[in-house]
Amino acid sequence: MTPLASLVRAPIDPIALVRAASSPRNGAVILFLGAVRQVNEGRDVTGIDYAAYEAMAQRELQAIVDEGATRFGTADVVVEHRLGELQVEDVSVGIAVGHAHRDAAYAASRWVIEELKRRVPIWKREHYTDGTREWVDPTGHVGAGSPR
Asked: What is 4-136's CATH superfamily?
């Protein structure tokens, strides 16, 4: 399989991600799901808008997946990130990594999510129960991640 990265607007299917990262050569398939949480920085959240400069975000996301595959010695890396409006508990990002060994699969998955948050131009605007909305940077700090 070729490492695969996608920006999607439809709900992420975890089983499809696992299938895409599975192979007879793999002794482990790790699935990471990031979901919209109910509270962030002490504020009650009702949902999040995810926005991106899509061409650049897709290119950078694919570069991360390709780098991760090379770095950790597996072609079985699959990532999907949602765009659009999501509600609490909706899955915003899914990462599946298949590898012959579990330690490498866990390490690759962790590396991919950290690089994604650091490098991919995807912004999130949280919706709060008081009716306000604020841009939040990928590391979770309110006000620092607004698009330019």
From this structure: Molybdopterin biosynthesis MoaE subunit (3.90.1170.40)
